[in-house]
Design a protein that fits this description.
Number of helices: 15
Radius of gyration: 17 Å
Shape: globular
CATH topology: ADP-ribosylglycohydrolase fold
Strand content: under 5%
Structural class: mainly alpha
Helix content: 55-70%
Number of strands: 0
């Protein structure tokens, strides 16, 4: 498991972001699909985690109490989100985040946008403990989205990924998210008719998690998330990451997703895949 599920969800949802398709009946991959800022920033976060692991003193343990690790990860998250993001200025950045990417003095800007959650899946897949997953999530997210709701949305996504990796049941995942993060007192069918484009964590993350919880396969999770409408690529990315941790991803979908990446992005993904393999 890597984080290809987030990329697949992003690609499948990309063509519906501003032209919603409120049905699960659609072709997953078409010529109109593309990687958006969701995939690009997810790969940038993955690069930051890998480079932190390479550079950190081996004597420093990766944990919530390792300030040196957190400081380095924070610096490298800024570095790679800016370096990689600047290669793709037209990939779909929001206005505030775009200014941050191109800033000479990038600082967090109290955002609670759903970008916090759409890029965070590498934290859930790299973490060796739940506390570590939470620490990674907060450190990565805080470089831009330091509003409590931004931190919360990213953490809920990361924790859902991490505990899904541990083989917990959907009931266990639902109970944990409900207890510590969001009320999941709705179904996708109930909210689909009135759900609209929402760029906030609190208006996207619960819905993405519910789409996963109602699914019966990885593909069905992606279709359910995108059928909701709204910010389709981001819903797909968040749901896809959690669904990958729970179900895995069919090989044909992985290979298809790689066709949408250029050499730069594919090289980061291949490096990440080897990193995850060696860290298990």
């Amino acid at each position: 498991m890597t984080m290809i599920g987030a990329v697949i969800g992003d690609i499948a949802g990309s063509r519906f972001e501003f032209s919603n398709h409120r049905s699960k009946d659609f072709e997953l991959f078409t010529e109109g699909c593309f990687v958006t800022d969701d995939s690009i920033m997810t790969l940038a976060v993955a690069k930051a985690v890998m480079e932190t692991e390479k550079r950190i003193d081996p004597a420093i343990k990766r944990s919530g109490t390792s300030n040196d690790y957190r400081r380095l990860l924070s610096e490298l998250t800024v570095k790679y989100m800016q370096e990689i993001g600047r290669l793709y200025p037209d990939c779909g950045f929001g206005g505030m985040f775009c200014r941050w990417v191109f800033s000479n003095d990038p600082r967090p800007y109290n955002s609670f946008g759903n970008g916090a959650a759409m890029r965070i899946s590498p934290a859930g897949f790299a973490a060796r403990t739940e506390q570590e997953a939470i620490s990674l999530s907060e450190t990565i997210t805080s470089v831009t989205h330091n509003h409590p709701e931004g931190i919360k949305g990213a953490e809920a996504t990361t924790v859902a990924i991490f505990i899904a990796r541990q083989g917990l049941s959907k009931n266990d995942i639902r109970d944990r998210i409900t207890k510590d993060y969001y009320r999941l007192d709705f179904t996708i069918d109930e909210i689909r008719p009135t759900y609209r484009f929402n760029e906030t964590c609190q208006g996207t993350v619960p819905q993405a998690i519910e789409a996963f919880l109602e699914s019966d396969s990885f593909e069905d999770a992606i279709r359910t998330a995108i059928s909701l409408g709204g910010d389709s690529d981001t819903l797909g990315a968040i749901t896809g990451a959690i669904a990958e941790a729970y179900y895995g991803v069919p090989d044909w979908m992985k290979y298809k997703a790689l066709e949408y990446m250029d050499d730069e992005l594919r090289s980061i993904y291949e490096e990440w895949k080897e990193f995850i393999k060696s860290s298990r």
